[in-house]
Amino acid sequence: DKAFFNMRGGRVGLGSMDSVPIRFYIGGDNKWTIGTGGNLTATASGVGIDFQPSNSTSGVTVSASSVLDSYEVGLWTPVVADAVSGGNTATPGTALGRYTRVGRIVQFSCVVGNIDTTGLTGGLTLYIQGLPFPSVAVAGWKPMTVMMDTLTFSGQVVGIIGQNESAIRFKQFASGGADSDVAVSAVSSGSTDIHVQGVYEVA
């Protein structure tokens, strides 16, 4: 294999004459690689782009790490169930999810259509399992935008994700009242469609 490093016309060149990756090492460990397609890949765990935080605004605490070490786009399969994990699962006519992860932030959407709840326990809480990553273990709910049809509920419905969970649970609430879980029995079996879109933080 032939590699080169040169300076010409005010430009610095580093490359390979053959179709092989170019690897960058620190302390004997391969940290970065430029593949034969030209893409730069972080090849060591935890390695990324360090933005060196400098925010000095009063009342703001900067995270210990400002390294961007993840970017991912993909699909996930939403699973309607009567438990946050495991439990009984429904049979949908349509089930499709999409997501984009940038660092610790995940933006996602999903649609589950014509949900057949046969086999689910009607008095249990309605969930959608299968999110691509568990949420960060920090107290507090992460609310999501929800659109549903042929579902029986009172007031307004939102989707929420609990800490360290990979499922969406559904809550309903009305002005002046406390929130309550949306039960599986609220679904019109074979007809209800659920659309969810949201953003949450991962560990």
What does the model show?
This protein has 203 residues and is an all-beta fold. The protein is 0% helix and 45% strand. The strands form four sheets. Strands 8, 9, 10, 11, 12, 13, 14, 15, 16 and 17 form a ten-stranded antiparallel beta sheet that branches. Strands 3-4-5 form a three-stranded antiparallel beta sheet, with no helix packed on it. It is elongated and about 70 Å long. Strand 3 (22-26) and strand 4 (29-34) form a beta hairpin.
Radius of gyration: 24 Å
Strand coverage percent? over 45%
Structural class: mainly beta
**Element order: H for helix, E for strand:** EEEEEEEEEEEEEEEEE
Task: Sketch the major β-sheet.
Answer: 10 strands, antiparallel
List low-pLDDT spans: none
Coarse shape: elongated
Number of strands: 17
Instruction: Round the mean pLDDT to the nearest integer and report it.
Output: 90
Oligomer: single chain
Distance between the amino and carboxyl termini: 41 Å
**Helicity level:** under 10%
Q: Please tally the helical runs, counting DSSP H or I stretches of 4 or more residues.
A: 0
Q: What structural keywords apply?
A:
45% strand, 3-stranded antiparallel β-sheet, mainly beta, 0% helix, 203 residues, single chain
